[in-house]
Amino acid sequence: MSAPAAKSVTASLPQKLCSMCGLCMGTSWPAQESIKSCVFTSGWLGSRERALFGRERARDNPEEMLFGISSERFVARMKNPLPNIQFTGIITGIAKKAFETGLVEAVVTLHRSPEDYFLPVPVLARSTEEILASGGSKPVLAQALASLEKACQQGIKRLLVIGACCHVQNLREFQRLSPYLNGIEIYVVGIPCTDNVHPKNFRSIFSKISRSHETVRHYEFMQDFTVHLRHVDGTLERVPFFSLPQDISSSELLTDCCRSCFDYLNGLADITVGYIGAPLHIEKMYQWVLVRTEKGKALRQLIADELETYPETSAGDRTAMVRQYALRYTRDGAAEALKMSGSMPLEQGFMLAEHMYTTGPRGLEFVRYAIDTHVIRNYYFVKQNYPEKLPALVPAYVYSILEAYGLEP
Ligand SMILES: Cc1cc2nc3c(=O)[nH]c(=O)nc-3n(C[C@H](O)[C@H](O)[C@H](O)COP(=O)(O)OP(=O)(O)OC[C@H]3O[C@@H](n4cnc5c(N)ncnc54)[C@H](O)[C@@H]3O)c2cc1C
After folding, report:
1. Residue 46 to residues 314, 380, 393: CA-CA distances in angstroms?
2. Which residues' Cβ are closer than 6 Å to ligand 1?
3. Is the pLDDT of residue 9 over 70?
4. Which pLDDT does position 247 carry in this prediction?
5. Please, what are the domains in the chain?
6. SS3 breakdown of the chain: % helix, strand, coil, rounded to 5?
7. 273: CA distance to ligand 1 center in Å?
């Protein structure tokens, strides 16, 4: 199985960091124009956040510092979940309504490859059927922005873009710096995203995680510290994070670009829709929504009648767990952490996952835990592997997190 063939200039990029976002795949603008906007060239958030919101996230506001700027946040689910979606289909619901009401004429998103259920094909969706066919995760790096060129060629004036954080960072900067998207009103729905894999490695990784990877239709790292794999016959397979094969987190498999990411919650989207801050419920599949801009409000309003909404919840205290995690990045703790690393037998892994889920961080506190640990890991990854990029790539809030845990920048 292979990723869909795609023309890309990424092989000739001057940099190794590339998330294959698709912006430099076309011929309508020079690749150098895309590279100028690339988040791995000029860095996460910072001036981009200022350009969108008129200010950067406040570092003295603990929630905004971690979750990004937003005007409203809540837990929600679609009253009638859509078919073939990831959770309840809030994103696909927004896209469908935005198209059917004429707010947008087309949607930049992804379809599934006919070669492999989990591989993406960039698409400019221009009908309700095409939008409905775009639901669900394709858990690999995806060239979603390749369809922007098509939107320009087709004279689209109002466009919805659905993307992960790197897509959205690159899109915003490209629209700001280059003239090619001038005159297009763009709405952006963002997914939280982390630890994505290269399409060419996906099946080899997946075959080590699942007992039957070819029959999996839903795959997600969940709040109970286990990976949930829903099979085509409806059965749920769970694998504790602590029992995942050690070699799937090897540096060759986890992409450098995802380990150089500092925008887990897609801070430049008009609206971010995930699940990570919602309570875990295996049937209800609650989601977590962050409305960030006026356009985000308009998108949320489109499906207001289709949503059940609930207030956010938060429980537990992440601090001790993050401190424990952070030890590996200290001189004294590194050797100890190495001794403790390794894959646990399943039974032991389940016991630890259960313990952490019942006594550890939940709801918003789980989000804080996830952001803190990823930021710490990624900071030291960049410092070790791309030291020359450290000043450009790392946004200011990261240093506040390092300081909070007494870590050396
Ligand atoms: C690699 C990866 C990691 C993720 N990690 C988290 C996480 O840690 N926490 C969290 O809360 N959420 C995460 N998500 C998002 C989550 O899986 C759901 O997309 C989100 O909760 C929306 O659910 P939904 O039912 O509304 O989505 P749907 O209505 O099914 O819509 C999902 C949309 O996302 C698009 N999409 C799918 N894969 C990709 C991709 N690779 N790149 C860009 N767009 C894509 C689809 O084409 C579709 O338009 C991740 C997604 C991916 C792809």
Report:
1. 28, 19, 9
2. 85-92, 109-110, 120, 134-139, 142, 144, 162-164, 191-194, 196, 220, 273-276, 287
3. no
4. 75
5. 10-196+258-312 (3.40.640), 316-409 (no CATH)
6. 45, 15, 40
7. 8
